[in-house]
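Protocol step 4 of 5: obtain the predicted structure for the target chain.
Materials: sequence only (see below). No template structures provided, no constraints applied. The aim of this step is simply to have a reference model before the mutagenesis design in step 5. Sequence pasted as it appears in the construct record:
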Amino acid sequence: MIEILKAVLFGIVEGITEWLPISSTGHMILLNEFVSLDVSPEFWKMFLVVIQLGAIMAVVILFWDKIFPFDLKKEPHIKKDIFTLWFKILVACIPAAIVGVLFDDLFDELFYNYTCVAIVLIVFGILFIVVENRNISKKAAPRITDFSQITYKVAAIIGIWQLIAAIFPGTSRSGATIIGALLLGVSRTIAAEFTFFLSIPVMFGASLLKLVKYGLVYTTSEWTILAVGMIVAFVVSIIVIRFFMGYIRKHDFKIFGWYRIVLGILVLAYFMIFAGA
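Step 4 output (structure tokens):
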């Protein structure tokens, strides 16, 4: 029962942090320092990624009309604009997919620790504030306010920003891609939604990679923990995505930048004191 309650907590954290630009993986790694699951190391590495499938299903349901490329009620049945959008999404996914497959183990070994997470939290927190201040000072309206205006070149550049998140935990995949999109003149709403859509193939691919790598041989207790975590992440994600989309229509991203900076400093301070004790 204690492990189930821990899984609920991990699901809540995943559902909140997957969509806010504050790093879900970073928060999960940090949470594990304080509330670790009693599972095998292999299951934990798989759990850290596959639990995100619950959160991804929330995107699929909430944005179904914007991402499903078929309309069975009308002729023709194919929605060409949505097919085009998916081609752009796939282009944006290529850099992270290639690097993730080739160097997944190396990145896990080098960067999955509290020091890296804390530093990256701070760096990208500062970037959010700088980018938003830059946009305010220029007083320029976004150049891209619709998915049809996202070119393949823009999609590829956003994909490179996503690659940074694939390498460094604590970056936030949504945070990195949103920053990249804002710098390219994409509106906040379109940047956030495009980021959400990017998460679908990325997270399904990452989950498949982990399942192939670590297999399916786990205890009944471990499978129950994963199922509970995914279900909770799904429910929380529905709430958080709706809140987030309403929030960014009226506000900028600077509050998330300040949150990242404060959290990164607290994490560094805590572990420096803890390590020295």
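Step 4 remarks: Residues 87 and 152 are 9 Å apart (CA to CA). The chain has one domain: 2-276.
Proceed to step 5.
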